[in-house]
């Protein structure tokens, strides 16, 4: 199996744009997509700290399996 890299990248970038979050999308090895994001927010409870920057990363890999064994 392989990822349609253009479609996967486009879908991830569209989602980031729709949510107003900045990030990067990487396709690796034809079966893995990784999204890195950065954002900031203003905490209500600790508002004296000002805006806080946050980052995140998530990856997903397409795997074909049969009977629990990767194929």
What is shown here, in short?
With 71 residues, the protein is of the alpha+beta class.
Describe this structure in words.
- Helices cover 21% and strands 44% of the residues.
- With 71 residues, it is of the alpha+beta class.
- The radius of gyration is 17 Å and the shape is elongated.
- It has 1 helix and 5 strands, in the order H-E-E-E-E-E.
Question: What would the keywords be for this entry?
Answer:
alpha+beta; 5 strands; elongated; three-stranded antiparallel β-sheet; 1 helix; two-stranded antiparallel sheet
Describe the strand arrangement of the main beta sheet, using strand numbers: 1-2-3
How many angstroms does the end-to-end distance come to?
10 Å
Helix content: 10-25%
Q: Ranges with pLDDT <50 over ≥5 residues?
A: none
Task: Give the helices and strands, then pairings.
Blueprint: H1 5-19, E1 22-28, E2 32-41, E3 52-61, E4 65-66, E5 69-70
Antiparallel strand pairs: 1-2, 2-3, 4-5
